[in-house]
């Protein structure tokens, strides 16, 4: 414990919009207001729908919600103090306590405000305030302001989804004939497909179309050189070492948890990877962790998870439909399950999880491998801080390690640890936007049994 406390004292400051010209600053100044404007527009465009469903009450709720969000946008643009939440949801008190924590860190000099606070906190706070605006205005309180863009992204990636499902069904038919080496090669391929699926992120494009058009398998060899850290072999070892001998003499594979990021094409890549893990005997169970409320434009909710499986099942394509049938049966049999928890939509760094959400931490301890998808998870894993690029991934986790874990992430925020000496400097010279363009990626592994 003393070692963990000393690590916490040595941590660098949080990324923040205080630094003019930084990616955090440009996000808060430009991208977040753009997202809010799109949310307001979406609610306004659904005015007739609200009227048809709820009559005049629906129209009044639409007006009130737009007024709330317009005020929120103005608070952001003019760097007003951050306000307490007042919607009385299960996480409201936790959010307000977190605001008090931020105020204590700032001292009495300044109020906590949009540009002076940690970027991770402010960005999460904006999405939580969007939820508050909707929730406080029944009867439209269940409206997902990001649903249209998530649905559009899924349908625009249809060809890529078909090619991936066709590939999956192809090797499912030949699974029994694969040697362990061939199985490992297939695992590496589908891990990379899931990794690059993370580029389809609608929060980074401020809700603009950002779908996958090309066959994901065909482009893997071209993308290999853009993986800056590749610990795939350690992930494979964690999977295979989790297999335990059963009473009947056969080995029983372990449990894999996937902490999801985006709906649409990326979710399909995660489902395909999970299908492979189960059908190849590398996992007996896969638990998917998603968001309990609409989040960061394209993050997966329970509705998105179920809807994607239903759409795949109903597709007018043999192999896509067959994949959907398989996925639905996994869910029905409990081989796959979806879970959400308020902690995933809090601004906490994951090193705080054991203290702030001990039930979730205990759940994750039951996994033999946890895959954390995407940029926001990476930011929370590493605390979204100004780490030197050469700081080991284990150290940046600051004691977080419920189970062996791997981050699959395409870089869309200016934080990256675990690089080799000189690697970051070379990238700065060759491609100044390397940390934020989504062009580069990492497969970074950590095990709680390794030196931290």
Tell me about the biggest sheet? Answer: 7 strands, mixed
Helix count, DSSP H or I runs of 4 or more residues: 19
**Share of helix, binned:** 40-55%
As a percent range, the share of strand residues is 5-15%
The largest beta-sheet arranges its strands as 1-9-8-7-4-5-6
Radius of gyration: 22 Å
Shape: globular
- End-to-end Cα distance, whole Å, is 12 Å
Low-confidence stretches: 205-210
pLDDT average, as an integer?
A: 93
Strand runs, count:
9
- Structural class, judged by helices and strands? alpha/beta
Order of helices and strands: HHHHHHHHHHEHEEEHEHHEHHEHHEHE
Short account of what is shown:
The radius of gyration is 22 Å and the shape is globular. The longest helix has 23 residues, at 23-45. The protein contains 19 helices and nine strands.
Describe the fold and architecture:
- This protein is of the alpha/beta class.
- Helices cover 50% and strands 10% of the residues.
- The strands form two sheets. A seven-stranded mixed sheet has the order 1-9-8-7-4-5-6.
- It is globular and about 65 Å long.
């Amino acid at each position: 414990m003393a070692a963990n406390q000393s690590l916490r004292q040595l941590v660098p400051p949080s990324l923040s919009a205080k630094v003019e010209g930084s990616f955090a600053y440009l996000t808060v100044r430009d991208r977040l207001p753009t997202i809010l404007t799109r949310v307001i527009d979406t609610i306004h465009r659904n005015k007739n729908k609200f009227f048809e469903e709820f009559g005049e009450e629906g129209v009044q709720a639409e007006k009130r919600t737009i007024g709330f969000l317009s005020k929120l946008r103005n608070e952001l643009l003019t760097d007003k103090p951050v306000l307490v939440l007042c919607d009385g949801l299960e996480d409201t008190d936790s959010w307000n306590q977190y605001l008090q924590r931020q105020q204590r860190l700032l001292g009495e000099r300044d109020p906590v405000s949009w540009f002076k606070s940690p970027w991770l906190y402010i960005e999460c706070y904006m999405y939580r305030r969007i939820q508050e605006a909707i929730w406080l205005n029944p009867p439209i309180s269940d409206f997902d302001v990001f649903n249209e863009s998530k649905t559009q992204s899924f349908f625009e990636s249809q060809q890529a989804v078909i090619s991936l499902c066709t590939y999956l069904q192809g090797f499912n038919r030949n699974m029994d004939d694969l040697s362990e080496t061939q199985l490992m090669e297939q695992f590496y391929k589908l891990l990379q497909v899931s990794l690059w699926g993370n580029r389809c992120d609608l929060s980074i494009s401020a809700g603009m179309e950002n779908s996958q058009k090309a066959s994901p398998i065909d482009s893997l060899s071209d993308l290999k050189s853009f993986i800056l850290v590749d610990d795939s072999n350690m992930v494979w070892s964690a999977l295979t070492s989790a297999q335990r001998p059963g009473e009947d003499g056969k080995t029983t594979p372990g449990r894999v948890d996937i902490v999801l990021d985006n709906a649409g094409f990326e979710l399909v890549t995660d489902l395909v990877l999970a299908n492979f893990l189960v059908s190849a005997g590398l996992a007996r169970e896969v638990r998917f962790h998603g968001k309990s409320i609409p989040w960061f434009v394209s993050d997966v909710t329970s509705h998105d998870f179920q809807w994607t499986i239903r759409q795949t099942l109903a597709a007018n394509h043999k192999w896509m439909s067959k994949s959907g049938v398989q996925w639905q049966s996994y869910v029905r049999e409990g081989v796959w399950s979806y879970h959400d928890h308020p902690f995933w939509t809090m601004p906490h760094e994951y090193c705080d999880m054991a203290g702030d959400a001990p039930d979730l931490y205990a759940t994750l301890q039951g996994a033999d491998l946890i895959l954390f998808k995407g940029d926001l998870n990476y930011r929370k894993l590493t605390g979204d801080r100004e780490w030197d690029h050469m700081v080991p991934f284990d150290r940046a986790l600051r004691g977080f390690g419920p189970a062996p874990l791997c981050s699959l992430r395409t870089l869309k925020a200016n934080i990256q640890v675990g690089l080799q000496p000189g690697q970051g400097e070379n990238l700065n010279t060759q491609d100044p936007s390397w940390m934020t363009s989504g062009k580069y990626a990492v497969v970074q592994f950590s095990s709680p049994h390794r030196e931290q």
